[in-house]
Amino acid sequence: MEILNLLNSTPMYLICGSIVLFVALVCVLFMVRAYRAGKRIGMDIAKMKRVIVFSATFTLLPSIGILLGVIALSGSLGTPWPWLRLSVIGALHYETQVAQAAAEQVGMSMLSAAEMTPGNFTTIALLMSICIMWGMILSFFFNRRYLAKLGQGGNKEKSRSGGFGDTAMSAMFIGLVSAYIGSYIGGFVSGNGRFSFSGSLTPIIVALVSGAVMAMFIYGSEKKQMAWLESFSVAGSMIVGMMAAVLLG
Question: Taking the CB of the first residue and of the last residue of the chain, which one, N or C, has fewer CB atoms within 10 A?
Answer without folding.
Answer: C
